[in-house]
Design brief:
The complex is a heterodimer of chains A (464) and B (265). With 464 residues, chain A is an alpha/beta fold. Chain A is built from ten helices and 26 strands. Chain A has two domains: 286 residues, FAD/NAD(P)-binding domain (3-Layer(bba) Sandwich); 161 residues, 3-Layer(bba) Sandwich (FAD/NAD(P)-binding domain), CATH 3.50.50. In chain A, the strands form eight sheets. Chain A has a five-stranded mixed sheet, with no helix packed on it. In chain A, strands 5-4-3-9-24 form a five-stranded parallel sheet, with helices on one face. Chain A has a five-stranded parallel sheet with strand order 10-21-11-12-17, covered by helices on one side. Helices cover 39% and strands 12% of the residues of chain B. With 265 residues, chain B is an alpha/beta fold. Chain B has one domain: Rossmann fold, CATH 3.40.50. The two termini of chain B are 22 Å apart. Chain B has a seven-stranded mixed sheet, with helices on both faces. Classes of the chains: A alpha/beta (464), B alpha/beta (265). At the A-B interface, helix 2, helix 3, helix 5 and helix 10 of A face helix 1 and helix 4 of B. Chain B: InterPro entries: AB_hydrolase_1, AB_hydrolase_fold.
Chain lengths: 464, 265
C-alpha cells in the first residue's frame, strides 16, 4: 500500500528543497498500459510502487479523454487479441478478433481494478525532473498537472519510465508549409471522419494510421489522395480464414529460414492481395518484414473503387496546392499528416539514457539504461505484433533485476557486467529493417522475446 | 517461465458458451472472489449444491465455472486440458478482483495449468487428481469396469463408492452420480500422459486438501502434491472423493476459507 507522504520526514535536501525518502519504493512514470503492467509486476515481486500520472485516469494514449491521446474514432487494433492482451490477463472470449480502441481502454481499466493498481497511482501529477542521487537512487520531482502547486521531490530506489512514445507529434518541415492556405492537421489531432466530409483530402503517411485515415477519407471526402514515400506490403487483416498475424505465427513456429519465410509470405500476399502496380501503387522497394507491418484490408479495396488515389511523396507545399515528387500537383482543402510520433523524455537528462545526438536512447534490450542499473524504460519498442505482451515481459525482467540487485548485490554486479554492460547495441529483428527514424526501435516479437527469455532465465540462474 | 507461446498465438482456444454459477455476499467485505473448478464429469452444479452459498455466507464472493463440455457449458467433444484451463482463466479474468482458484479432482490439474496463465491470489487443490499411473492403478483395482473403457476413449465412470462416504444416503448419492457427465476422450488420456504444467505465475500460495479415505486419490498422491508446493496436505478422514457433496461438506470448505482469511491469500 502506498503510504502517505505526510508521514515521511524530510531529512535530505536538494537545491534548497526537502527530499522525501521513499526507501525501497520504485517510481513508475505514467499509468498507460506500460505503466500499469509495470506497477502490477513490481508489486507482484514485492516492491512498493508510486506511479505518477499527469491525467486523471488510466490508459494513457488509449484513453481518448486524455489530451495527448492519439486515437481516432474508428481506431481498431492492428494485431489480433492473442498478440495484444497481457499474457496473464486475457481479453474476453466474446470480444472480436480486432477490438475497438474503446474496448482496449475498458480492458486496461479492468486490469487496473482487477489487480488493484489505482491506489498506487498519483493522478493529476506530472513528473518534472528525474535526477540521479547518491547510492544509485533517484530524485523525482513532481507537481500538479498544468504547473499549479508547489513542486515536491521524492527519493526512490529505482525509476521505471513508461511515458509512452506515441504522443509527441512528428511533423516534417516541408518546404512552403507555412504559406499553405489549406488546413494541415497532424493525425494526433484527427478524431472524427466528419471533419473530412465533402472536402478534398490529402493523407500523408503509409503507416497504419495513414492507411486507416485514407480509408475514412475515401468514404467521407469528395477526393482523397494518399501520399507515401515508398511502396509497401499491405497485409490484409485476415488470411486463409484467420487473423493474418495468427497465420504468420503458424509459419513462424516452423522455424523456417528468414529468406524462405519472406518468399512464402510475399507469395501469399501476391496471391491474396495481388500485384499492387495494377492499382497504380508502387512496387515495394524492400522485402516483407523490413518495415513495420501495415495491416489493412480496406485500403486496396478503396483504391480499387477509385476512392483513394495513391500518390508519391511530397516535394513542397505551395499556397493553394501541394507538389509531389513526380511533378504533379494536387489541391487539397485538408492535409492530414499521419507522420508519426517521436519518443520524448523531457524530464530526464539525455546522458541518463545514453541518447544519440538525434535523441534515440541507447538501452539494453530497449529497456535497461547501461549507465544506471536502477533506471529502466518500459514500452519503448515497436513490434510486428502487439506491444502489451512485450512490455509485460520487459517489466517482469525489470522487477527480477531489481530484486536480484537487492538480494545479492555482488551477483547482480557480475550479471550486469556479463549480460548488460558488454552486449553491444542489437536489433531484435530477423530481417534487415529499414533505417528510418521510425524503425530504430522496431523488433520482431519472437526474436525480442527470445532475448528477454534469456535475460529472465539468466536472472533466475544468478539468483539461485 | 516460457515467453514464446506459439500455441496461444497461432492457434488460440476457440470460444465456447460458458456456465458460471455464483453466490455473492450481501455486503462486500473486500474479501477475494473464490472460483471453484469441478473435476471431470462434474459441473458447476457440484459446488452450487453447498459450497457456493456457504462461502458467500462467510463473505467471499463465490463462483463456479463448468469447463467446456461439462454442466451447462457448450459442448466440446475434442477439448484438451488447455481448453479447460482457458475456460478457467477466462472466468477468473472476468471477475472484478484477483481470484482464488479452487480445483477439485481433475479440476486441480486444470487449475495448475490455469495458474501458468493467470496470477491467482492463491490456489487450493482439493482431492487433486493430478494423473499418473499410481492413480490409474488404484482406479483400475477399485473400479475396473468404469476405468478400463476410458483407455479406448470411452467414458470414465466413477462409482458411488468411490465418490462418497457411507454417510451419504444411497438415493442422494445415486442422484449425484446420475448427474455426472464426461470429459472429452482427449482430456481423459491427458490424465495419464501430459506435460508437466508450466510454473505458476505470480508465486501464489497453494493449499492441498483431501481425505485419507478417498477411493480415487491415494494418500501418497496427496502428500506428493502438497510437497510440490512446499507443504503438507490438510486431511479430512472419513470423507469420500467428492468433498463438496459428501455429508460433512462443511469441514473442508471452512478449513479452506479459514486458510484464506489467515492470509493464505
Amino acid at each position: 500500500m502506498t503510504t502517505s507522504t505526510d508521514h515521511d520526514s524530510a531529512t535530505l535536501w536538494r537545491d534548497g528543497r526537502p527530499v522525501y525518502d521513499r526507501g525501497e519504493t520504485v517510481c513508475v512514470v505514467g499509468a498507460g498500459p506500460s505503466g500499469l503492467v509495470a506497477i502490477k509486476n513490481l508489486r507482484e515481486h514485492g516492491f512498493g510502487v508510486d506511479c505518477y500520472e499527469r491525467e486523471t485516469g488510466v490508459g494513457g494514449g488509449w484513453n481518448w479523454r486524455h489530451d495527448r491521446s492519439p486515437v481516432y474514432g474508428s481506431a481498431h487494433l492492428i494485431s489480433s487479441k492473442p498478440f495484444t492482451q497481457f499474457p496473464d490477463f486475457p481479453m474476453p472470449d466474446d470480444w472480436p478478433d480486432y477490438p475497438h480502441h474503446s474496448q482496449v481502454l475498458s480492458y486496461l481499466e479492468r486490469y487496473a481494478d482487477h489487480f488493484d493498481l489505482r491506489p498506487h497511482v498519483w493522478f493529476g501529477t506530472e513528473v518534472v525532473k528525474v535526477e540521479p542521487a547518491d547510492g544509485m537512487r533517484w530524485d523525482v520531482t513532481t507537481r500538479s498537472t498544468g504547473g499549479y502547486g508547489a513542486e515536491r521531490t521524492h527519493r526512490y530506489a529505482a525509476v521505471v519510465v513508461a511515458n509512452g512514445h506515441n504522443w509527441s507529434p512528428n511533423l516534417p518541415a516541408y518546404e512552403g508549409l507555412d504559406d499553405f492556405k489549406g488546413r494541415v492537421v497532424h493525425s494526433s489531432a484527427y478524431k472524427d471522419p466528419a471533419e473530412l466530409r465533402g472536402k478534398r483530402v490529402l493523407v500523408i503517411g503509409g503507416g497504419n494510421t495513414g492507411c486507416d485515415i485514407a480509408v475514412e477519407a475515401a468514404q467521407q471526402a469528395s477526393r482523397c489522395w494518399h501520399s507515401t514515400r515508398r511502396g509497401y506490403w499491405y497485409a490484409p487483416k485476415y488470411l486463409l480464414g484467420r487473423p493474418a498475424d495468427q497465420f504468420h505465427d503458424a509459419i513462424l513456429r516452423l522455424r523456417l529460414p528468414l529468406r524462405l519465410r519472406q518468399w512464402l509470405l510475399q507469395r501469399t500476399l501476391r496471391l491474396a492481395v495481388g500485384d499492387l502496380r495494377r492499382f497504380g501503387m508502387r512496387r515495394p522497394d524492400h522485402k516483407v518484414f523490413e518495415t513495420h507491418p501495415i495491416v489493412n484490408s480496406q485500403l486496396i479495396y478503396h483504391v480499387g473503387h477509385g476512392g483513394i488515389a495513391p500518390v508519391p511523396d511530397i516535394r513542397r507545399f505551395r499556397q493553394y496546392s501541394v507538389e509531389l515528387t513526380d511533378g504533379t500537383e494536387v489541391e487539397p482543402d485538408v492535409v492530414i499528416a499521419a507522420t508519426g510520433y517521436r519518443p520524448r523524455f523531457e524530464f530526464l537528462a539525455p546522458e541518463a539514457l545514453a541518447a544519440t545526438p538525434e535523441g534515440r536512447p541507447r538501452l539494453h534490450l530497449h529497456a535497461f539504461s547501461r549507465r544506471h542499473p536502477t533506471l529502466a524504460v518500459a514500452g519503448l519498442v515497436e513490434s510486428d505484433s502487439g506491444l502489451l505482451p512485450l512490455v509485460h515481459w520487459q517489466t517482469v525482467a525489470i522487477a527480477r533485476w531489481l530484486r536480484l540487485r537487492e538480494a545479492a548485490p555482488q551477483r547482480a554486479g557480475e550479471f550486469w557486467t556479463g549480460a548488460v554492460a558488454k552486449e553491444a547495441d542489437r536489433r531484435w529483428t530477423g530481417a534487415k529493417v529499414q533505417d528510418t527514424p521510425r524503425h530504430w526501435f522496431e523488433v520482431s516479437h519472437v526474436d525480442y522475446l527470445r532475448a528477454l527469455q534469456k535475460m529472465i532465465d539468466g536472472l533466475a540462474g544468478a539468483r539461485a | 517461465m516460457r515467453l514464446i507461446r506459439f500455441d496461444d498465438w497461432a492457434s488460440p482456444v476457440p470460444p465456447v458458451r460458458r456456465e458460471v454459477r455464483s453466490a455473492t455476499p450481501e455486503l462486500d467485505e473486500g474479501k477475494p472472489p473464490v472460483l471453484f473448478v469441478p473435476g471431470f464429469g462434474h459441473g458447476a452444479w457440484a459446488f452450487a449444491e453447498f459450497w457456493l452459498e456457504h462461502a458467500a455466507g462467510r463473505g467471499f464472493p463465490a463462483h463456479a465455472v463448468s469447463p467446456r463440455g461439462h454442466g451447462g457449458s457448450g459442448t466440446a467433444p475434442k477439448a484438451s486440458l488447455r481448453a479447460y484451463a482457458h475456460d478457467v482463466v477466462q472466468a477468473a479474468a472476468s471477475l472484478p478482483r484477483q481470484v482464488v482458484l479452487v480445483g477439485h479432482g481433475a479440476g486441480a490439474l486444470v487449475v495448475e495449468r490455469a495458474l501458468a496463465r493467470y496470477p491467482a491470489r492463491a490456489a487450493v487443490l482439493a482431492a487433486p487428481v493430478l494423473g499418473g499411473w499410481a492413480t490409474f492403478g488404484a482406479a483400475v483395482r477399485r473400479n475396473p469396469g468404469g476405468t478400463l473403457p476410458a483407455i479406448f476413449g470411452g467414458r470414465l465412470r466413477l462409482s458411488r463408492r468411490q465418490l462418497f462416504s457411507r454417510e451419504v444416503p444411497d438415493a442422494v448419492a445415486k442422484g449425484y452420480v446420475g448427474r455426472l457427465g464426461r470429459a472429452s476422450a482427449r482430456a481423459q488420456w491427458q490424465l495419464l500422459l501430459h506435460r508437466a504444467p508450466e510454473p505458476a505465475v505470480g508465486d501464489p500460495p497453494v493449499l492441498v486438501v483431501g481425505s485419507p479415505d478417498d477411493r480415487v486419490v491415494p494418500p501418497s498422491a496427496l502428500t506428493s502434491a502438497a510437497r510440490r508446493y512446499g507443504g503438507a496436505p490438510l486431511l479430512f478422514p472419513g470423507m469420500g472423493h467428492d468433498l463438496m457433496l459428501d455429508a460433512r461438506w462443511r469441514e473442508p470448505i471452512d478449513a479452506i476459507l479459514d486458510w484464506l482469511e489467515k492470509g493464505g491469500s
